[in-house]
Amino acid sequence: MISDRHLAWARRGAALLMVACGLSPALAEPLSEEAAIARGTAIAERADAQGQGYGDVQSSMTMVLRTPAGDEAVRVLRSRAMEGADGRDRSLIIFDEPRDVAGTALLTHANPDGDDGRWLYLPSVNRVKRIASSGQSGAFMGSEFSYEDLGPQDISKYRFKWVRDEPLDGTAMHVLERIPKDPDSGYARQVVWMDQANLRLHKVAFYDRRDRLQKTLTAEGFTQHDGRYWRPLQLEMRNHQSGRSTTLRFEDYRFDAGLSARDFDENRLANVR
What is the pLDDT along the chain (273 residues), one digit of tens a residue? Predict the structure, then answer.
């Protein structure tokens, strides 16, 4: 028969093992659905609050598209973003190279109260195209990123639930499930790995409308700016269904660059530089 002392040692050993794996003994028992939703929502809100206050930021980007055979195509871009009141953030992506796509620009206006605004300027036809909500799941410029993957990611657009805590590459993570509220989203759900120390998003698994794993996004090389804001140096989106992947590399982050609402005006998109 197992003595009380041996049982206590076994429990202590299990608790230590969970701590070593980045788990909390207090959370070893499954949470109720309501408690898991409350915990996941609270974590998402803390992460969102931690990233606020940056004002505006711009960066240089390189996009690398890869086929299953290993062929690559490289594009050079720029990115701009600006905070707006009540979550109405703005973002702009501009292509500089190669020549056949130079000047192409994607503008996104986040709208917590309804559909986000998305406009794509195509210099080859000198036309600004409005991307409807029903088209947000389409691939952006032949990449593995969809329109809804790019631009502001407002937490009001999702329902969150805490799934578990676990290590990822030796780092303790919160694992959350987020479900898009928009019926036009291309995803049934997303599973997010966020580090517990700084609440940075390291990995996202995207499940299509049939709840099949479609894509995985991984973020690497985080750098801190102004002693507060974390940004990755690389994002890689891998499509498990097509075998294709797209890598975005970032450099030269510049905060408080003096951007204004005029830099994100859809009526000036054709003249953006």
Answer: 445 444 444 444 444 444 444 444 444 567 899 999 999 999 999 999 998 899 999 999 999 999 999 999 999 999 999 998 877 899 999 999 999 999 999 999 998 888 899 999 999 899 999 999 989 999 999 999 999 999 778 899 999 999 999 999 999 999 999 999 999 999 999 999 999 999 999 999 999 999 999 999 999 999 999 888 999 999 999 999 999 999 999 999 999 989 999 999 998 888 887
Q: Which residues contact 169 (CB under 8 A, 6 or more apart)?
A: none
| Both tokens assigned to 228 | 């507060």
Cα angle, residue 83 at apex, residues 138 and 250 outer, rounded to 5° = 60
Q: CATH number of the domain at 48-264, please? A: 2.50.20.10
Domain regions of the chain by residue span: 48-264
The dihedral formed by the CA atoms of 41, 132, 120 and 190, expressed in degrees to the nearest 10: 30
Q: Hey, which residues does 127 pair with through a beta bridge?
A: 122
- Provide the residue count of the chain: 273
What's the predicted TM-score (pTM) here?
A: 0.86
